[in-house]
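Q: What does the assembled structure look like for these inputs?
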Amino acid sequence: MRRSLANIFQLGIKELYSLRFDPVMLLLIVYMFTFAVFEEAQNANVDVVNAAVGIVDEDRSQLSRRIGDALLPPRFQPPDALAIDEIDAAMEAARYTFVIDIPPGFQADILAGRPAVVQLNVDATAMGLAGTGAGYIQRIIAQELNAFLQSDGATPAVNIVTRARFNPNLETTWFQGAMSLTNNITLMAMLLTGAALIREREHGTIEHLLVMPLRPVEIMLAKVWANGLVVVIAASLSLFIVVQGALAVPISGSIPLYLSGTVIYLFSVTSLGIYLATLARSMPQFGLLTMIVYVIMLLLSGGNTPLESMPAQLQTIMQLVPSTHFVRLAQAILFRDAGLAVVWPQFVATAAIGALFFLAALLRFRKTVTLMQG
Amino acid sequence: MNAIARLSDLSHRYKKIVALDGITLDLPAGRMVGLIGPDGVGKSSLLALMAGVRKIQAGSVQVLGRDMRRMRSRRAICPRIAYMPQGLGQNLYMTLTVFENIDFFGRLFGQPREERLRRIKELLESTGLAPFAGRAAGKLSGGMKQKLGLCCALIHDPQLLILDEPTTGVDPLSRRQFWELIERIRSRRQDMSVIVATAYMDEAERFDWLVAMDAGQVLASGSPAELKARTGTANLDAAFIQLLPEHKRRDHLALIIPPHQVKHGSPVIEASALTRRFGDFIAVDQVSFTIEGGEIFGFLGSNGCGKTTTMKMLTGLLPSSGGEARLFGHPADARDIDLRKRVGYMSQSFSLYSELTVRQNLLLHARIFQLPRAEIEARVKEMTERFGLDDVTDELADKLPLGVRQRLSLAVAVIHGPEILILDEPTSGVDPVARDQFWALLIQLSRDDGVTIFISTHFMNEAERCDRVSLMHAGRVLAQGSPVALISARSAKNLKETFIAYLEEAAGTEPAAAQLGTALDRNNQVAAPQLRSKRLPIDPARRAWAYARRESLEIMRDPIRIAFALLGPIILMIAFGYGITFDLEDISYAVLDHDQTPESRNYLENFAGSRYFNQRSPLQNYAEMESRLSKGRLTFAIEIPPGFGNDLKRDRQPEVGIWLDGAIPFRAETALGYILGVHQYYLEQRIRSESSSDQRPTPLTIETHFRYNQDFKSVYAIVPGTIMMLLVWIPAMMTAAGVVREKEMGSITNFYATPVRGLEFLLGKQAPYVVIALLNFASLMLLAVFLFQVPVKGSLAALLVGGLLYVIATTGLGLLMSSFMKTQIAAIFGTAIITTMPAVNFSGFFAPVASLTPGAQVFARIFPSSYFQQISLGTFTKALGFEALMVNFWMLALLILAYLLSALSLLQTQER
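A:
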């Protein structure tokens, strides 16, 4: 047993040395954990930010101008004035997501208490912001109208007060920053570990290891710990420097708990990486296979769109994928300040799935050497 | 002297390594010129520079009287040169058949069908490959691959034939046949010059004129007889060693091999009827031998004859399919850890960790072999001294010269003091001096330490040094015994002749040379006049088509790539189409009702009735609310204050509290929108029902038109967007990897060495990927319409034209990527990373382009995704036609042109 641990340690150190001389991989690690996290958090917005609005003002009254002026950044760009016959072309070219049409005599009708109709055209193909954006505009128009009339006649019977827990201003950057960090952990762990195994196979050093007094399980565990360590260090730095620092995301939960979850998750994905490497016969094949697996994990684990919106069967299938549990775990710890008492099922599930992949890879490990004969 | 090539002051370096160091030399025309010397002395660089496939750095090269530095003159003479690079079948396409390979080269030289077929027939018959015309090049033996390479080189009647180590690793019979073939061809075409590089000195004896090279310099040149006379030696091996500079020669010692003392113990290594099959291919067929302790046992055979496979079975790396291998009387089982400590293994590729230093390599192995900690230091020191590694202990293994690296490999293999040493071609590529030094170490190990050595080689002189050898061919042992006994049994001159005799016997043929001769003579009469046929005007389209055709054949024979290309998009489309959705339903919520009156229940009923919400068991207190929110069980909670009902009746504006889980902002925002909608509806209902109230209803109505997607279903936006995304991602990745693959495999040389121009190469490579991408497009459209029920509401023609332009643009983007990627893995990941962000974030897929920051908009404009997103979404969902989308078509066309021109300007037409 002690012998085994010493071997695993020695081989892992060797693994780290190998990585030190792979500039492409190192560059990719730096890119993925700095620039990529930052850019995605800044730009991957699916909520109402900087929306393009057009206004057809046929009234040209104080009230109609007031409505236009009330559409403010960061949610809206300053609205552009349009003529009524430009609406269709502008919306077809997707220049505007929203076009407001204020009819002639609007202010006069309102003042006289006559019913008045404002048209709001929404490009409903912009799924991310069409629904919520339309809601915002409706409320802004109503507010402006009330303020204009300065009447309390319209005070509602019931007031509603909303408070968002965990992220009071519903800033997407918080969410995107943490999720893109999570996604990049997945990709890099799979890629590093799998590529390390394939590289050893291509250089013939894996055979060398197998004729030494080593067992495959030791070789695999060495890869798991060494590559996992690299990713966990990179991810921690990224969390402190990029997410908390540059993106200024306040992390409310326990970072040590999150990082221990990450360690368990890394066991799971590095094992998956090794398993994929035993399926592929060459580096390019491994690359293609990993890309497909990664993209599916990226989009369907709940980090991009909520899991509960997916069809039930798909949700069930995704329970077998470790990233689903890790995404849930990361959201719970980082944003909701959940403790171990809350997230332990995810810890267990991630570890169990990891053990399955590890076992499957172990069973194929010796066979991969013979595969190189093709 | 009439020179075929004139080199003057030619130098070439790779970063810090000097490959050629100021060479000035004239090579005679109409002769067979040999470049001799070990690996890494600059032979290959010199040949590549003469063939025009490598860019000249310093000095000048004139071939056939033309300056090879000038593109124009290279182009003019390249149809008169043929170049066969180093490595078995390096310029061949392994999945293509023999016929298809030659045919491809014929097409590159613009030969019309009739001429091509005639030439292929001639070449196949004269090389004896005719019966194998339909076999894939990858399934040929080494010797046959080299013959095929020669056919490909000769299809256009070159005046100068440049061959880089054409026979390395080929069995001696095939080697002899190869040279006989060359001689036949030369006798037919007196004016043809041949320049050959070789590492086999015995082959060099038959050349007309030799250039001996070392360390990038010419040691001597002249006929073999001249060289031997000048050095006063009997053979070229010795002559070469004499020609080496003093300091290198000094290390050379004549090898003395003490005779093996036969100990009559039990055999150390035994194999009985050992067999290994891979599918229906039998790699090792009933091989048996026994090896005594302390013996040096050699395995002699060509590449791919089963030597490595046998050795792997002995080490237990590979299970046998039949028979048995025993070491020290124990079955060779990989799981037997104690057995492994008694065996040392050195594999073909000198499997060292190139990124560790010499010392680190030794330490790592010592520790893994569990040497006692106290002894490790001393043992490592002993090894570095004994194997002459003292000066380099802290160098990286990667930086060592080949000969030193090989000694390190041996040191690593014996650090644990094994009783058996298994060495798989340990000396390939090493110069003769280093090879003899290595053998001195082996002899020491065997005779002094009593280590049993099992070694494989394809060098005859090494095999002669073994106590016993086994001659192997095609998985079988042809003969076994001491070299002397084998030679005398066949009464042959030397071991090579002996091997050839056994090979001929095994093939069950007449001596092959005679057979070849008749075939050639027969052809000679027919072929000779035709060989001078006039060259036809070369058609660029024909060459582009040659590339397109070949690429398609290759893709169709690569099941993994074709599966990825055709099924990948379908799988991903299904996953995305179902998986990505902005439609939120069944949002879970719970109620904390402090009031519990009919009024509060009336308010809450509106939520319970909405299809968007899913009510969970009510909350008892704040703690429970907090706990359920933080577990992610609830998306929001509604709190009704105490006295809600009373306050409502008295118009005191009670305040309802909503507690949202803000962890996923998008979900929270959407939920909030729905909540406010329900709330508003409640207020309106209330006003309507209490018409007696003095409140005046708001006269304003906001009519909201959800255009293009009245049901507001994500699928109508996601499916067209997914098509956009998959059609950039996969075609760009496939194309980039397809071009880089040629760089990695080495077949890019064919582009450098033949008259193909950059544009022809690029368009030829792109065309098959455009076709694949169009198939993807078709399958994705079918999925959209039939599986996801997203109809094409606008112009189908516009969608089709847009799709065509888009895939031309995305494959073009792939071509552009490939111009600066070096490995397939980099091409795959680099292209994925570079195309994903613009396709997902800057295309209008998730957020409209109009909402992007100005910087991001620029980014969106230089990638094709934003334009096709408009076309795809426009024709599927917005019911648009050509007119409304026109600008997008123009922009795509512009991008196609821009990508192609950039790729063309970045494409290298020579190796650097």
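Chain A touches chain B through 133 residues (CB under 8 Å).
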